[in-house]
Amino acid sequence: MDVRNCRQCGRLYNYIGGSMYNLCPDCIDKLEKKFTFVKEYIEQDENKNASIKQIAEDCDVTVKQLQQWIREERLTFSEDSPIGIPCEMCGKTIKSGKFCESCKQQMATNLGKMYRNEAPDPKPVRRKSERGKMRFLDD
Ligand SMILES: [Zn+2]
Ligand SMILES: [Zn+2]
């Protein structure tokens, strides 16, 4: 059993694996209700151009929480909405997720390179020790 302190109210609760918030079931429930409220709020025409601060005030949630939902791609905004969050790599304003398109592309390239380097050698640790032995013999 994994017992943790709720990040929100501090109560102990049984942690269920896979939960992305360190929250007790009560607080998760409250947060989900809040999320539904925010989602309905931004879907209304008159709130389409609301700033993230305004949403936070009107829905009584923190800007941080709103940004987290945007990062998780649970909240999305139209292209002409003023709302955006900074790319975690370069700081460019993006509409959802963590990174802008160009950073995503760059990461994919780097990941590909890394994969290709590792692919021919599945056990790098063993090879290293063998190489060490060979050098010892050479000496
Ligand atoms: Zn709680
Ligand atoms: Zn970026």
The H-and-E topology, N to C, reads as: EEHHHEEHH
Count of alpha and pi helical runs: 5
- List the ions, cofactors and other small molecules found in this model: zinc ion
Mean pLDDT across all amino acids: 84
Structural class determined from secondary elements: mainly alpha
Return residue spans where pLDDT drops below 50 for at least 5 consecutive residues.
none
Radius of gyration: 23 Å
User: What is the tally of beta strands?
Assistant: 4
Give the strand line-up of the largest sheet.
1-2
Largest sheet: 2 strands, antiparallel
The count of domains is: 1
Q: Percent of residues in helical segments?
A: 40-55%
Anisotropy-based shape: flat
Provide a descriptive summary of the structure in words.
The longest helix is centred in the N-terminal third of the chain and has 19 residues, at 25-43. The protein has one domain (24-138). The strands form two sheets. It has a two-stranded antiparallel sheet. A two-stranded antiparallel sheet has the order 3-4. The protein is built from five helices and four strands. A hairpin with a 6-residue loop joins strand 1 (3-5) and strand 2 (12-14). The chain starts with a strand and ends with a helix. The chain is mainly alpha-helical and 139 residues long. It binds zinc ion (2 copies). The site of one zinc ion (ZN) has 8 residues, from helix 1. One zinc ion binds next to helix 1.
